Amino acid sequence: MLGGAFLLVAMSAQDTVVIRNLRAALTDVVTPVMSAVTRPADAISEGAVWLQEMVDLRAENARLRAQNAELLHWQAAAREMQVENSSLRNLLSFSQDVGISYVSGRIVTGNNGPFTRSALVNVGSSDGINRYQPVVTEKGLAGRIMETGYHSARVLLLTDINSHIPVMTEHTRERGILSGNNTDTLTLNHLPDDSKAAMGERVVTAGDGGVLPAGIPVGVITATENGQTHVKPLAEDGRMEYVSVIQYQF
Amino acid sequence: MQLLLRRFKLLAITYYPRVQILGLVILSGMPARIFPFGEMMLPIVVGCTCYWTLFKPELLPLWSIAALYLLMDILEGFPLGLSVFLILLLVLSIRAFQKRLVRQGFSLTWVAFSIAITGYYAAMTGLLWAINGQMTPWQGLTLQWGFGIGVYPLVHSWCTHIQRALPAQWGRR
Predict the structure, then answer these.
(1) Residues of chain A with pLDDT > 90: what percent?
(2) Distances (CA, A) of A229 to A188, A220, A225
(3) With an 8 Å Cβ cutoff, is B21 touching chain A?
(4) What is the pLDDT of residue B152?
(5) Do B77 and A2 touch (CB under 8 A)?
(6) Interface A:B, Cβ pairs < 8 A
(7) What mean pLDDT is predicted for residues A39-66?
C-alpha cells in the first residue's frame, strides 16, 4: 500500500494524463457531496448577513444615495467616452478580436493553508470550462482553472506558490510578474529598475501571452521594501462564494 | 429495541475513529467563509490518526486511513497520494513501536507525537519542494506545526474521553 501511494505521488509529480483523469473523476465524486455539506452552512451565514443588513438599512441607504450621485457623474463621463471611442475605432477601422463569455459557479471547498491555495468550483468541462481559464469575482481576478472534471474544476488561487501571472500597473503602465507565496500578500517581480509604481496603485492583468485578457483588476500595491513590491489581492480567498470563469478566446 | 440499541452502539464504537477523522477532513476542506479554521485542521487530523493508531489500531485499518487521506489530498489540492504516502509511513512507524509506546505516560506520548509531526511536516515540505521546485514559506508552516504540537494535549484528551465513555464495548464484535 505504501509503495502504491509512493507511485501515485511520483505519477502526480509528472502530471500525467492518467493522474489528471483520475483526479478529475475523484473531484467529480467529492464536489456534489461538499456542495451539499456547505449549503446549510451557507444558508445560516446568509441569514446572519440578512439580519445585519436589516439593522444597518438606514445608514446603508444614505451611503448608497451618495454613491449613486457619484456614479451618475461617472456614467455621463463613460457615455461620452464610449461615443468618442466608437468614432475613433471607426476612424482606424479597428477590428475587435476578443470574444468573452462567463460561466458562474459556486466555491464548495477552499484551502488557504501554508502548502497550497486552491478551491473547487461546481462547474466543469460540461459547462465549457477549460484549463488555464481565468476565474474572477466581482472585485477582480481570483485565479485560474488548473484541473477540470465533468462537473467540477479546481481553481489555483492567485496566492498559491505556483501562481505567476503577467500584470501591469494601472497608471504607470509598468509590466511585471505577480507571484503568489502561500500567504495573503502577492509579490510583484521584474518591474523596471526605475519603476515609478507607488503604494495604492492598482495592478491589472497585462494580457501578455494571451492566457488572460488584459485589464482585469488584480490587486493594490501595499508596500515596496528591499526592492520587492507587495500587492494585496482584491479578491479575498476566504470570502469568495460565487465566481465566474471567463471563457476567453485570444 | 435493546438489540437494535446494542447494534447501534457497536457500530458507533467500531466506526467512531473513522467518522471523527472524516469529519475533521471535511472541516479542513471547508471554504473560509463557512469555517475559518480549516487551515489549522491538518495537525488535528494527524493527531487523531496517531492517537487511534497507538491506542486502538484495530479500529483504524490501513485501507481506511488511505481512503481518508486520499480525500484530504483532493480537498486540499495536494498532489494525489502525497498525504496517503506520508500518513502510511507515520502509521507504520507508530505500529512498529506501538507495544512500547502504549505503556508510556502522557508526557512521553506527547514527545513521540511531536517528533512524528515534525517528521511529517519536514517530509511534506521536502516532497512539495521536489514537486513544485519552490520552498513552502516557513511562516505559515511553522505556525501550523507549532499549533499541531501545542494542540495535541487537547486532541489526546478528547480521544481519551471518548475512549473511556465507551469502555464496555471495546473489542467486542
Answers:
(1) 23
(2) 5, 10, 7
(3) no
(4) 92
(5) no
(6) 140
(7) 84
